[in-house]
């Protein structure tokens, strides 16, 4: 993407108060928002940035220009006073604890950090994923305008920052350095998202149950223990007569099937072995969460008892 | 549809973690926290979209627009932290609507104070 033609391509940005800035595409793309909009085809002629006034935008462009190898003249006009918050979302109060009353203080107080990383880029969720989630609840015929999509993206990022900030306050009060999942759930309850608390607690519990084997050192590579999450139901039913056998410890105890069906048996034992162990696999089985899964179910777990089947 | 597939999260954990770490006060994050946020953000998106869509329907539109989201934000207390994201003109529409209500109904005691 570094062809000379694209280097010279200008992107036109329009601030909230109507001022127009022309910047190189490479410079403009330092903003993830703008980069996404260009890629999504939202930037036909001018990209409107309705949250950024001319003063702020000029500073941001200046920053991007000096940080970027592509130095070029732009139409930036007045530069604002130094120390103005340079985040693209004016009033994005990241890191500022918010009163439960819901009125977020404006972000300029006491040097609160805007949510830009060192390269001046904001972070948003991938738009495709977000739209997919939106479509879960919208009717089939519904359309979504482009600025609505962008707005939702911004809202999600703001939501994460908002909750994280509150959770972090609690961690700091208790002198803990790590934000745990419980802190996040607690913060949600505190900030008014009570409805989320119950479902999220259950989600967390199921997640922990399904991952409880992951941290055990001795289980690496041996997937015939109950951390298997991707068993395929059809594997069991697809196996021939061996399926009707009651769950046994080891497949070698089964009478060898007729020679014609030597193919299937190797895949049958692991699931039954796990089923017997039972730990965690029961609830997993029936929650319907791991439909299909991926194909790692047929991994090396069936290796050991095979010699009996192959004369 | 919205099955909780722990392996393939709807929203990328790494990106969530980046947003969390954009706050310089944040030090370390437990590994399961971005996973939890992934689910929480899903719920958040669903709620915000659902509430916004109600206003689109109210205006008999099939296209969800930014001002729908703005209305949802202003009318839902828990979304107060989002007021800065929607531009003032969208909010102004909302406030004008409320103002007209205000003029319509004047509490009796206000009139008393004015007179005395």
From TrEMBL, chain A:
GO cellular component terms listed in the entry, alphabetical order: CCAAT-binding factor complex
One Pfam match: CBFD_NFYB_HMF
Keywords of this entry: Transcription, Transcription regulation
Transcription factor CBF/NF-Y/archaeal histone domain span: 124-188
GO terms classed as biological process: jasmonic acid mediated signaling pathway; ubiquitin-dependent protein catabolic process
InterPro entries noted in UniProt: CBFA_NFYB_domain, Histone-fold, SKP1-like, SKP1/BTB/POZ_sf, Skp1_comp_POZ, Transc_fact_NFYB/HAP3
Gene3D superfamilies xref list: Histone, subunit A, Potassium Channel Kv1.1, Chain A
Location of the region described as Disordered in the Swiss-Prot/TrEMBL record: 94-120, 256-278, 291-311
Pathway: Protein modification; protein ubiquitination
GO molecular function: DNA-binding transcription activator activity, RNA polymerase II-specific; protein heterodimerization activity; RNA polymerase II cis-regulatory region sequence-specific DNA binding
Domain (SKP1 component POZ) ranges: 9-65
Compositional bias segments (type: Low complexity): 99-115
Similarity remark: Belongs to the SKP1 family.
Protein's UniProt name: Putative nuclear transcription factor Y subunit B-3-like
Protein's organism: Cocos nucifera (Coconut palm)
TrEMBL record, chain B:
MF (Gene Ontology): DNA-binding transcription factor activity, RNA polymerase II-specific; protein heterodimerization activity; RNA polymerase II cis-regulatory region sequence-specific DNA binding
UniProt xrefs under CDD domains: HFD_NFYC-like
Coiled-coil region list: none
Keyword Transcription regulation belongs to the record: yes
InterPro entries hit by this protein: CBFA_NFYB_domain, Histone-fold, Transcr_DNA_Rep_Reg
Gene3D superfamilies: Histone, subunit A
GO CC field: nucleus
Span of the signal peptide: none
Record family assignment: Belongs to the NFYC/HAP5 subunit family.
Protein name: Putative Nuclear transcription factor Y subunit C-3
């Amino acid at each position: 993407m570094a062809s000379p033609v694209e280097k010279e391509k200008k992107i036109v940005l329009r601030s909230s108060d109507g001022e127009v800035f022309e910047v190189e595409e490479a410079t403009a793309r330092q903003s993830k928002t703008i980069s996404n909009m260009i890629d999504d085809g939202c930037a036909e002629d001018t990209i409107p940035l309705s949250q950024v006034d001319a003063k702020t935008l000029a500073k941001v462009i200046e920053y991007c220009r000096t940080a970027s190898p592509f130095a070029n003249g732009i139409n930036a006009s007045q530069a604002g006073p130094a120390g103005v918050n340079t985040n693209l979302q004016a009033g994005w109060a990241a890191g500022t604890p918010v009163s439960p009353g819901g009125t977020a203080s404006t972000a300029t107080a006491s040097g609160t950090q805007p949510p830009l990383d060192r390269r001046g880029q904001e972070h948003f969720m991938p738009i495709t994923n977000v739209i997919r989630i939106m479509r879960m609840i919208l009717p089939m015929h519904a359309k979504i305008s482009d600025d609505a999509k962008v707005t939702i993206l911004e809202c999600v990022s703001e939501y994460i920052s908002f909750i994280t900030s509150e959770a972090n306050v609690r961690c700091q009060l208790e002198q803990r350095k790590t934000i745990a999942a419980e802190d996040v759930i607690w913060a949600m309850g505190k900030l008014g998202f009570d409805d989320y608390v119950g479902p999220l607690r259950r989600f967390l519990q199921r997640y922990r149950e399904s991952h409880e084997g992951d941290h055990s050192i001795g289980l690496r590579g041996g997937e015939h223990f109950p951390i298997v999450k991707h068993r395929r139901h059809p594997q069991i039913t697809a196996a021939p007569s061996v399926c009707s056998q009651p769950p046994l410890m080891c497949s070698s105890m089964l009478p060898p099937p007729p020679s014609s069906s030597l193919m299937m048996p190797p895949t049958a034992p692991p699931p039954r072995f796990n089923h017997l162990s039972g730990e965690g696999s029961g609830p997993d089985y029936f929650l319907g969460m791991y439909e299909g899964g991926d194909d790692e179910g047929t991994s090396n777990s069936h290796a050991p008892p095979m010699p009996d089947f192959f004369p | 549809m919205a099955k909780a597939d722990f392996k393939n999260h709807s929203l990328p954990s790494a990106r969530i973690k980046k947003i969390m770490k954009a706050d310089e006060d944040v030090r370390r994050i437990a590994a399961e926290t971005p996973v939890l946020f992934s689910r929480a953000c899903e719920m958040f998106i669903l709620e915000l979209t659902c509430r916004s869509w109600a206003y689109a329907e109210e205006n008999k539109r099939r296209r969800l627009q930014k001002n729908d989201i703005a209305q949802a934000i202003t009318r839902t207390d828990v979304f107060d932290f989002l007021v800065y994201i929607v531009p003032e003109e969208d909010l102004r529409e909302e406030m004008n609507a409320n103002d007209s209500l205000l003029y319509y109904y004047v509490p009796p005691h206000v009139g008393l104070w004015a007179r005395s």
